[in-house]
Design goal:
With 418 residues, the protein is of the alpha/beta class. The chain has 2 domains: 191 residues, Phosphoglycerate kinase, N-terminal domain (Rossmann fold, 3-Layer(aba) Sandwich); 194 residues, Phosphoglycerate kinase, N-terminal domain (Rossmann fold, 3-Layer(aba) Sandwich), CATH 3.40.50. 33% of the residues lie in helices and 14% in strands. A 6-stranded parallel β-sheet has the order 3-4-2-1-5-6. Helix 8 crosses helix 9 and helix 10 runs parallel beside helix 11. It is elongated. The two termini are 23 Å apart.
Amino acid sequence: MDKKTIDDVDVTGKQVLVRVDYNVALDAEGRVLDDTRISASLDTIRTLIDRGARVILISHLGRPRGKPAPDLSLAPVARRLQDLLGRPVAFLHDCVGDEVNAYVHHKLKDGEVVLLENVRFHPEEETNDPAFAKQLAALCELYVNDAFGAAHRAHASTEGVAHYRTAVAGLLMAREIDHLGAVIESPERPLTAILGGSKVSTKVGVIRNLLERVKVDHLLLGGGMTYAFLKALGKPVGASRVDDESLAMARDLVKNGIPPGVALPTDVVVTDRGFDIKKPLNPEAQVKIVPAEQIPEGWQGADIGPETAKRFGEIIRESKTVIWNGPVGVFEIEAFAKGTNAIAHAVAASGATSVVGGGESVTAVHQAGVADQISWISTGGGASLEFLEGKDLPGLKALEDKTPKPEQSSPAGATGRA
């Protein structure tokens, strides 16, 4: 972690704008269903409070398409944050404008916290509009990015505002980069990566980076991408879902055969009926286990089989470092959850340094009851993927380095920072 953090700056008496990731699920009554991301931000908030900062929190929630949406208000999040923090949290019904300016500049006191309304209610957020970023910067004297889950987005509140104020990382952001960076740059070996999910197209960059730069010892592939690889190898996949883009990318990856260290499932769980993760499986559906290379016509793959789960588990338990992103089956449906559950228990039992990233993988380890046995559970989905792919994250890149690079060593006035 070569970026400055809140430990490197004086925050006493300063208005500090903190970008958090409160993109959480709400129920029909507007209650927070999972407060994991809120809880993850508490250390940074408490540290700032204890040091006498005036804390201004900003986040997005969902996809309101640039206009107010009552069901995507952060008001319920403010209530849950107040419960978790154990102290008052004010809530404002916008993130810019006269009311917001008046509150943060004239009412907010040292050690107090306010949460602003959903920043995506403004279309200028996602377009990273400079004028909007300046409005956000005008609220504070210091900017802190603690939203690793949104660090791969070059939006006004994640990247744009950093051009107008001193910008440093929060404690969660720092820990995310430290843990993910360690397993990529200096892992204890054997290093095993497990990749699942539905599309090769979203993981191809990660696969290449893990094989070519990180040089993982084992790369275990599962989930929906299994069937793209099988089809690319000329094997029947029945009615399994394979999109054209994923198939083309899978063909390119295996054009010279399966790369060394890569393991595909040898058996899979299939069903003769379609399924929807939001609904129970059709009671008339047949489910059976078949060799991965012999999926019958009209049947659809939905999970790795027990033979694969055992083989993958043995590899995981012999590993010293494990990275896992993406479920290996449709774990939301009980009939297809055994494979992902087995992987979760194998990772937990391995004793290896383990990093789990991606929303579905995180849900899986909690569902399996082994979350407390995982070394690090990342709050980032797309961000953790892009980090594993070796990409620069705009929200991280915009923060100040501890040791300025030569081209960044000019006076603050020359860089536009205040």
